[in-house]
Amino acid sequence: MTVDEGQPGYARHAVEVFAEELDEFLAAVMAEAGEHADPADLTGLDEPFERRVLGTAGTRGMLGIGLPDEVPAGPWLRAAFDFAVAAHDAPLVDTAVTLAGFSVAAFANEEQHAFFLPRMTGGELTMCVAYSEREAGSDLRALSATAVEEGGGYVLSGVKTLVTGAHKADWCCTVARTGPLGSAAMTMFLVDMAAPGVRVVRRPTMNGWTLDEVHFDAVRLPPGAVLGEPGRAWRQLAAALRAERSGMFHLGFARHALDGLRRHLRETGGGDPVSRDAFAALEVDFTAGVRLACRALSADRGSSDAVAQASMAKVFATELLQRIAQEATEAAGHQGMIHAPLFAPEPAPAAAGGRFAWEYLERVHGTIGAGANELQRDTIAQAGLGLPTARRK
Ligand SMILES: Cc1cc2nc3c(=O)[nH]c(=O)nc-3n(C[C@H](O)[C@H](O)[C@H](O)COP(=O)(O)OP(=O)(O)OC[C@H]3O[C@@H](n4cnc5c(N)ncnc54)[C@H](O)[C@@H]3O)c2cc1C
């Protein structure tokens, strides 16, 4: 991380050392990435390479370092991890520990802890999260997947959509309705992706990658598949989604994109006055974004201030990323329109090798995923500014 404002003294040294080690490690492994391109896959790299990077990071103790209560500086170390991984385009953000790790660490029972955590943090086991459904995205209370108790376990049925990396995940953390009444009747489950009745359908996204549909066709789950308390998924989900929102990995992507824009402007004679002005303003906003993220990390965990700060950091970072992508394509003119996949073996005959157009398409989702920005602004109004709950029509 580039700004340490608000870091407690005990965290500062640990974060600096960790960030330096990560930078060195990621620069070395990503130097080989070009030989492992798989443009249609999530992260743009082939799965064996991803698994190798994951395994090495696990062996070096870099994964899951900020999971709840593990170490006092945990959230700062995790933020440093998120930032560095994104800034290096490394394939460690999605299906490794980041998404499901918080829920497993926070809500697993002793047996689940003993099985999953060492494997996840060791980089041996990947886990996707499958919450969203076609009619239940922002409003997860509308979900229709069901888990019906039977023979001491459950039978899980339903279809999850827009799942990141399900086609290569070993396990899945999901949520289903276990009773008829609203949010009080939702339960989280851990599902083996190799279990009979689990089927994954890959759907192409606009930047050429895939998101997955996960079909649960009467999947039989043992009683030990419940994660946390039956019927308490709503609260668990809220905590897990908040943990995704420091915004640091968006800022890592922003750093990468701004460096690309700076290179482009330098190589093309410094840019016209409008592009230079916009670029400088984006750098100012990047610094503000890092400060917002640090403020969110410093807020008292569990307080309504922390909730509002996390939402502010997420909104600012995801909108900044879109503005950078927009400015880069505009600064490059028609050369900014040519798209090339990430890690393309041959650079495209375009500005930044086609990266600007790729960024433009890729960064759309940040303002929608992990709680749409409209909902985050509502949270800021309520938890941060003390306004009453919004009236729903
Ligand atoms: C790249 C990507 C990866 C994803 N990965 C995963 C994953 O791994 N696992 C998973 O479970 N899901 C995943 N999702 C799904 C993601 O969580 C949902 O897209 C998100 O919850 C929004 O749901 P929705 O797409 O159904 O949009 P909707 O809920 O239909 O919302 C669409 C838009 O309507 C507006 N809106 C909605 N509700 C309100 C409101 N109350 N007030 C004001 N405006 C509102 C917002 O502008 C919002 O962006 C992913 C999505 C993307 C794009």
UniProtKB/TrEMBL annotation:
InterPro entries: Acyl-CoA_Oxase/DH_mid-dom (IPR006091), Acyl-CoA_Oxase/DH_mid-dom_sf (IPR046373), AcylCo_DH-like_C (IPR036250), AcylCo_DH/oxidase_C (IPR009075), AcylCoA_DH/ox_N_sf (IPR037069), AcylCoA_DH/oxidase_NM_dom_sf (IPR009100), Mycobact_Acyl-CoA_DH (IPR052161). Gene3D superfamilies: Acyl-CoA dehydrogenase/oxidase, N-terminal domain (1.10.540.10), Butyryl-CoA Dehydrogenase, subunit A, domain 2 (2.40.110.10), Butyryl-CoA Dehydrogenase, subunit A, domain 3 (1.20.140.10). Its cofactor is FAD. Keywords: FAD, Flavoprotein, Oxidoreductase. The keyword Ribonucleoprotein does not apply. Residues 128-219 form the Acyl-CoA oxidase/dehydrogenase middle domain. The keyword Oxidoreductase applies. SUPFAM superfamilies: Acyl-CoA dehydrogenase C-terminal domain-like (SSF47203), Acyl-CoA dehydrogenase NM domain-like (SSF56645). Residues 234-383 form the Acyl-CoA dehydrogenase/oxidase C-terminal domain. Signal peptide: none annotated. It comes from the Bacteria. Belongs to the acyl-CoA dehydrogenase family. This is Acyl-CoA dehydrogenase family protein. It comes from Yinghuangia aomiensis.
